[in-house]
Each structure stands twice: as structure tokens, then as C-alpha cells.
Amino acid sequence: MLVLTRKLNESIIINDTIELTILAIDGDQIKLGINAPREVDIYRKEIYLQIQKENSEASNLPTNLLELLKNKK
């Protein structure tokens, strides 16, 4: 992991297209601004992990799920 120190209003550039800027510092919290192309998905980690979990669970559904649902009538 790369660890960088930044002060208020300083930025980090990633891959020429993403800029992270420290907008505010309040105690142990920071406000982070992200400037990135629209096609770049940006999530808080806890949301990203939940999406990954739900996608994994959905991919484990039976392959014949539609047939099973039709036969329930």
C-alpha cells in the first residue's frame, strides 16, 4: 500500500484521469473530493463489498430457476 500525506486543498493524481483532493479536515474525518471520468465507478468500500456479495449470491442460483418457478404453479 502506498501511503501519502496531503494537507487541506492538496491533491493526488491517479493514472492521469482521477484527482483526489482533500476538501476538509474535521478531527478524525476528512472530506475527499474525487474528480474522475463518468465511466469510472466510485463506491465506498462497504457498499462495494455488499454489491460483490450480492452478485456472488445471485450467480449461485440454480441454472434451472425459471423451470423451477414455472413448475410451482
UniProtKB/TrEMBL annotation:
Keywords: Bacterial flagellum biogenesis, Cytoplasm, Repressor, RNA-binding, Translation regulation
Calcium among keywords: no
Origin: domain of life: Bacteria
The keyword Cytoplasm belongs to this UniProt entry's keyword annotation: yes
Pfam families assigned to the protein according to its UniProt record, in alphabetical order: CsrA
Subcellular location: Cytoplasm
Known role: A translational regulator that binds mRNA to regulate translation initiation and/or mRNA stability. Usually binds in the 5'-UTR at or near the Shine-Dalgarno sequence preventing ribosome-binding, thus repressing translation. Its main target seems to be the major flagellin gene, while its function is anatagonized by FliW.
Family membership noted in the UniProt record: Belongs to the CsrA/RsmA family.
UniProt-listed HAMAP family: CsrA
Quaternary data: Homodimer; the beta-strands of each monomer intercalate to form a hydrophobic core, while the alpha-helices form wings that extend away from the core.
Protein name, UniProt field: Translational regulator CsrA
Gene label: csrA
